[in-house]
Amino acid sequence: VQEKKILNMSRGEVVQMKQPPHKTFSTLKEINRYAGPNVVTVEGEKSFGSGFFVSGNGYLVTNNHVIENEKKLKVRINKDLKLEAEVIKSNYEYDLALLKISYDSVPGLWLVNSDSIDDGDPVVAIGTPLDRTLSSTLTKGIVSGKRDFSGIRMIQTDVSINSGNSGGPLINEKGEVIGMSTMKVKETGVEGIGFCIPSNDIVKMLNIVYK
Asked: Is residue 119 annotated as part of the catalytic site, yes or no?
């Protein structure tokens, strides 16, 4: 109980933002065409990761470990456009961060109720694995299970998640975001064990309110 109280205290103040349009799709090509421009590379002076827009007025989310200890942050929209980012808030306990940039050319992605997912559901991840030149990489897999880590429930998946994918969206077969890629088990002989923060926790623990 005490652990849950501490976690809830980390939410911070409410952040109101514009609700993204709720669109669904029937093919991976359609999902990638729509979601791809909403996924970005978050670059610091020391490292980089992925992120995605959750509103049409420049709000985006990523992992806290992507932006932690970075003095300057930029968001690469595409190979020709890179903008400075402001950290609105971060949540260390849930490894989440909310950023804002001056950009309104994409609508943001819809975060569906992550309680609706089941083991075996098909999913895709989009992000920037391993190298900045690999932005908007799409990988496919399934939901493998749900696991608890120190009181925090995570989505387990066999989707390919590599360094740089952190902060990118995990998307269901309709094109709705169900989670955020956050870590992968790295051991010799181990493959296909990645973990994602559920979309419900992204909204709750960053205290996002749509209007």
From this structure: no
